[in-house]
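Quick one from the shared queue. A colleague (R.T.) flagged Short-chain dehydrogenase as missing a structural entry in our internal table.

Convert sequence to structure tokens.
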Amino acid sequence: MKIENAVVFVTGANRGLGLEFAKQALALGAKKVYAGSRDPSKVTLPGVIPVKLDVNNAQDVAAAAELAGDVTLLINNAGIASVSEGLTRPGSADLLRKTLETNLFGVLAMTQAFAPVLGRNGGGALLNVLSIVSWVNSPVIPEYSITKSAAWSLTNGVRHELRKQNTQVVGLHAGYIDTDLTSGFDVEKTAPSDVVRQAYAAIEAGELEVSVDEKTRAVKQALTQGVYLIDPSTQS
Ligand SMILES: NC(=O)c1ccc[n+]([C@@H]2O[C@H](COP(=O)([O-])OP(=O)(O)OC[C@H]3O[C@@H](n4cnc5c(N)ncnc54)[C@H](OP(=O)(O)O)[C@@H]3O)[C@@H](O)[C@H]2O)c1
């Protein structure tokens, strides 16, 4: 599908990658861009329609689908991450539950609410923002990694189900991106503009999965040959 004339809904659109998704959708000629945010007053980008949306709040999700009944492209971008004390430490289960709530169940809730909308509007597309750690567990953020693996599997499952209504379901995988989420990490990062440019190009090309940087592409390639091991000295 083309972004030009699409009606786009972006979750977590007030900052970071979500803001960039909204900006580039406008630049590519989207007919309308809904910008979901837990606090809509934080959506300051001219030209978008702010929508109050906490993806963990069932009422918000239902109201968003009601309001935005003309959506043809859903970008499930909202996500959280926390540095971990380790999977074998007592706090791990709580951190995993909390992170799953947004990164997995939030995506599922939005998908369930918007699948009929996309179907009614001809199929359209749905893109889930996943990660390099969907494929390899990071020792710094192991709980987050588990949530992104689960969200990858969710993406693959939803793709099967929505094929019959002609919805293109895309998984986006990335290593470090230069947003607030990674401000504490002194590592090489991809610019959000580069990530989003590749994401929209993949949607327009009809692709089902996009890896936006060399490292991510290398990890996927390595998985076909065995287990990919993180270098403990560089955590990458
Ligand atoms: N940065 C990276 O290195 C990287 C790499 C791979 C994948 N990703 C993924 O990219 C996506 C965007 O991350 P980012 O880097 O842009 O992070 P970010 O700068 O921290 O922004 C996260 C966005 O998600 C929103 N959000 C969090 N919980 C939410 C909820 N329950 N309901 C609605 N919105 C919620 C935040 O809203 P508030 O402003 O209200 O907190 C914010 O708008 C995430 O799915 C993340 O996992 C990031």
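Residues 81 and 144 are 6 Å apart (CA to CA).
The pocket of NAP is lined by residues 11-12, 14-18, 38-39, 53-56, 77-81, 102, 106, 129, 131, 174, 176-177, 179-182 (CB under 6 Å).
Added to the table.
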